[in-house]
Specification:
Layout: E1 8-12, H1 17-26, E2 31-36, E3 51-54, H2 60-67, E4 72-75, H3 82-87, H4 89-110, E5 113-119, H5 142-161, E6 165-170, E7 172-174, H6 186-196, E8 200-203, E9 209-210, E10 212-214, H7 215-227, E11 233-237, E12 243-244, H8 245-256, E13 262-265, H9 280-286, H10 294-299
Parallel strand pairs: 1-2, 1-4, 2-3, 4-5, 5-6, 6-11, 7-10, 8-13
Antiparallel strand pairs: 9-12
Helix pairs in contact: 1-7, 2-4, 4-5, 6-8
The chain binds uridine-diphosphate-N-acetylglucosamine.
Uridine-diphosphate-N-acetylglucosamine (UD1) binds next to helix 6 and strand 8.
Length: 302
Amino acid sequence: MHTPTDQSILVTGGAGFIGSHLAEKLVADNDVVVLDNLSSGRREWVDNRATLIEANIQDTQAVARAADGVDLIFHQAANVSVERSVDAPIESHETNVDATLRLLEHARKEDARFIYASSAAIYGTPESVPIDESDPKEPTSPYGLEKYTADEYCRLYHELYGVETVTLRYFNVYGPRQRGGQYSGVIDIFLDQARRGEEITVHGDGEQTRDFVHVEDVVAANCLAATHGTSGEAYNIGTSNSISVDNLAQLIVDTFKTSSSITYIDPREGDIQQSCSSIKKAHQDLGFNPNWSLDDGLKTLW
Ligand code: UD1
């Protein structure tokens, strides 16, 4: 069985981009509570069989109510933007670290399994690619450091208290419902610019690479992590393929035959250069196999 059944489940960020797809997958066979402040998520993305608690992840009373009696927690709520963490590091730390630690305390109290949305940003700029889970962690942004801290707390909660934790280190997730305005993911931003016929804005020289993984594959990884016995472990979740941001911009221009031109703007602070996952460990332990190629995924988004 690769999808949890008959469980009481909390999905934080469950009205948002990744969380709403995950909650949708779980809701038929489980009791699902969604905690979301609807900052980037939307009420209409929450299936009406799920219970929506509209609150901030830092609202301790709401979080306690949401976590009461749960068997399984998928923690997706976060500030997801590297740029925003550079602009407002304290706020980002409170959301990404403090709130995660409090949620881990609930997992400990409830004896709940805890699946954490970690990030490839924890590795910083790697010495070589593909990146292995045991490679050095040298984050280049507050965001990367926050995700690394919470990722380590998950390991520690398993070691110290026996909490069943799994951290999934997402590479660059894309797909339907990725909406974040200025702070959104690059594919969402480029597609938006291409649709409007505006200039596609590449930061720096565009040589930086990313490993884009479709949200449906990320949902599958979460379900595998919830149903496979391993805990206290961390897994890269990507595709093992990468593309430069420049080539991504060109691919979008070619695929959608837009009138947009590509323009180069200032490099972004905190940006990592190379990113490409090794997913051997997730494949071996969890049976993770991404199904979506970037070409196919992009075509469904136009
Ligand atoms: C992304 C995710 C982060 C995740 C991480 C894992 C978002 C917003 N961020 O960070 O949550 O943990 O992957 O690796 O989804 N770029 C441009 N032009 C633009 C916007 C971006 O050239 O208009 C470039 C950026 O400078 C960067 C690349 O595209 O080099 C990707 O940026 P972005 O989509 O924001 O993602 P990451 O910073 O990699």
